[in-house]
Amino acid sequence: MTSAAEQRAPAGEPAAGTGQQPAVVNGARRAAVPSPVVWPGAPTPLGARFRVGPDGVAGTNFALWAGGAEAVRVCLFDERGRETQVPLTELTHEIWHGFVPGVMPGQRYGYRVDGRWDPWTGARWNPAKLLLDPYARAVDGEFGLPPEAYGHVRDWPEQYVADTVRDDRDSAPYVPKGVVVHDDDDWSDDRRPKTPWADSVIYELHVRGFTKLHPQIPEELRGTYAGLAHPAAIEHLVGLGVTAVELLPVHQFAHEDHLLRRGLKNHWGYNSIGYFAPHAAYAASGTTGQQVGEFKRMVRALHAAGIEVVLDVVYNHTAEAGELGPTLSLKGIDNRGYYRLQDDARRYADYTGCGNTLHVVQPQVLRLITDSLRYWVTEMGVDGFRFDLAAALARSMHDVDMLSPFLAVIAQDPVLRRVKLIAEPWDIGSGGYQVGAFPPLWAEWNDRYRNAVRDFWRHALPDVREMGYRLSGSSDLYAWGGRRPYASVNFVTAHDGFTLRDLVSYERKHNEANGENNRDGTDDNRSWNCGVEGETEDERVRALRRRQLRNLLTTLLLSTGVPMLVAGDELGRTQRGNNNAYCQDNEISWLDWSLLDDPAWRPLFDLTSRLIALRHRHPVLRRRAFFSGRAHSADGLRDLAWFTSRGAEMTEGDWYAPAATLGMYLSGRDIPGRDERGAPVTDDSFLAILHAGEGPADFVLPGPPWAEWYEVLVDTSREDQAGAPGTVCAAGSEITVPERAVLLLRVVAPA
User: Fold this and answer.
1) Rounded CA gap, 217 and 231, in Å?
2) N or C of the chain: less Cβ packing under 10 Å?
């Protein structure tokens, strides 16, 4: 075996990072030295930061927190992979640091950290392993996870003790390297949309999956940040009317060993290993720093179109998994300092289901996360974050604590408290389900909304109480502590689970392609296949499914709160019944853009964009305050009222009775708040009738004071909505609501 200490640049050759770059960069003089030297440098900022040092000499300052380490070496790699090691001898407040003259942008590097090997106490230092800088701003190369990438002997015959046997093979040839990046972008030419929460419509998409098959994006740009910045991609987003894209993880991530062994890859990216680096595989321009500029250009292009960029971030765990996982970064820097360990310190506390959990209570871990968040806002231009398994971040020593250090730091941070913050409000640990519990500033994925809407349209709710709460902003969950209806991010589908089309086409998951014998993915789909499992040529079933899609999308976009769509649902995208396509980097996950030109599916896009435009035009559909349900004038008209099919207001008994029909009246006369000039906000009033029954239903339209006449705006029983507007009905008249349909009617003045 070759030890780490034997890896050196050959005698007589220039050392990596020296002798090959220009003598002057941006006016700074490059050090003319035959071999690397290290000056004391500074302990802040953490990471590798190119700058001008003493005497105007250009170089890079390296700073790494490694609390219990005994020695740290920064390792520089030239174009042929030859390594030069530079000891960092300065130690300030547990931060090892040094300034290396002549190390220029584009330099590839990593760390070797020395310390005790004592897994029984959680100490897993192994200097044979090259470690990725947690603050690396760009990463070059992929994690293939051969045996050499593990700090222990991965294939030790007795697996129950394998993690205690140190592997002394050098991992440097097999793992990616960090890249020094020069960043002097001040974003002075960028204009953030700053869309108010109540006006937001979120569109969850995957950078690669969204662009990979788009016929109008040049082939060399498909699957990349540049592809998402292409006018063809932005044209679709603008035409749809969404105000923000929520990108599935774009932090540098690694593929799990069990997937690589099956010839698969982690497509979704919930396996982060670099919290500052844009995932290199999504870059068309290069991976030695170019990915940073490409990501920024993407953000600028989206901002110019009025679209915010929200990142789905995974700070709850890393790609290093548990004690049998690889040693790629934090595990080899200070395992005990970064991860939650059990009382048996060989084992990891796992609140995520991914093998480990970051120990956010530790100051250095909290600093890593908040430094990363601020970096993406201030230097990469993003507008907010959706936090995967956010309950794990809110845990103090064990329990979820809404006064935890993480939430407290976010609340007072002058940068982070101004951006959009979305919690996935659960983890898999005890007490981890926290929907409705996050403090003000936070919005939450509302899975109770998802479940209620799915159950209503498959006619599985025992009564309509739950549906009433969800349609009107979930006040039972969020009307406390100054929170508003937009704390509820309403969704029917997300990346995790069935697509909208599959939700009405499958009752069982079909995940065989994942290679896990269909054991993975949830069995609680709350789906209805309309009588046939999977795709069918039966036009009656297909028409019913399209109607159900229209019902689901219309319900979502008429509900109070912030709607979230999943990319492709507006096109009828299918994953062929796979409800856990995390490892399907292929046509199962990529958007099929031919659906946009398919006469059977194009009307779904048209309806979705029409509903979003309706939402943008009418403030009564995107309220900034909860409904009161009280009359504010002598005529008894309230801001929100509920009606039975008889045209009568619902009584308490009606809420508890089985029902397939619900009428919701939204008054535009009593909208709280004022516009930018201080004038009262007023709008049209609407009546939405939701009918999930198998047959048509008669419905009496409420008379005065609610209305005298109604105009039909949307009728989801129709494939094409072009002829729906214009039908006017008198208040008090009885209309027929088609089976399984939504009618949206606008109150109009008498002719």
Assistant:
1) 8
2) C
At 227, list the tokens. 């592809």
Mean pLDDT of 6-22: 37
Element (H, E) at 643: strand 640-643
Q: Which residues contact 480 (CB under 8 A, 6 or more apart)?
A: none
Give Cα 656 distance to the centre of its chain: 37
Copy the structure tokens of residue 121: 């106490």
User: What is the residue-wise DSSP string for 109-127?
Assistant: EEEEEE--EEGGGTEE--T
Tokens of 547: 């109607």
Rg (CA), the chain: 28
Structure tokens at 297: 């250009």
Decide: helix, strand or coil at residue 209. helix
Q: How far apart are CA 510 and CA 630, in angstroms?
A: 48
Q: Average pLDDT of 710-730? A: 84
pLDDT, tens only, 536-585: 999 999 999 999 999 999 999 999 999 999 999 999 999 999 999 999 99
User: Is the separation of the CB atoms in 510 and 578 below 8 Å?
Assistant: yes
Closest CA to 203 of 252, 232, 231, 239: 239
Using a 10 angstrom Cβ sphere, with 0-12 exposed, 13-18 middle and 19 or more buried, the burial of residue 720 is exposed
> Which amino acid, one-letter code, is at 330?
L
Cα 675 from chain centre: 32
Q: Which residues pair with 253 in a beta bridge?
A: 272
At 254 the three-state DSSP class reads: coil
User: What token pair was written down for 438?
Assistant: 């996050």
CA-wise closest residue to 211 among 182, 158, 248: 248
Per-residue pLDDT tens digits for 105-164: 999 999 999 999 999 999 999 999 999 999 999 999 988 899 999 999 999 999 999 999
Q: Which residues are catalytic?
A: 388, 424
By residue count, the chain amounts to 751
Q: Answer yes or no: are the C-beta atoms of 152 and 165 closer than 8 Å.
A: yes
Query: What is the distance of C-alpha 232 from the center of its chain?
Result: 23
**Nearest of 576, 510, 571 to residue 546 by alpha carbon:** 571
pTM above 0.90, yes or no: yes
Q: Confirm if 604 and 226 have CB atoms less than 8 A apart.
A: no
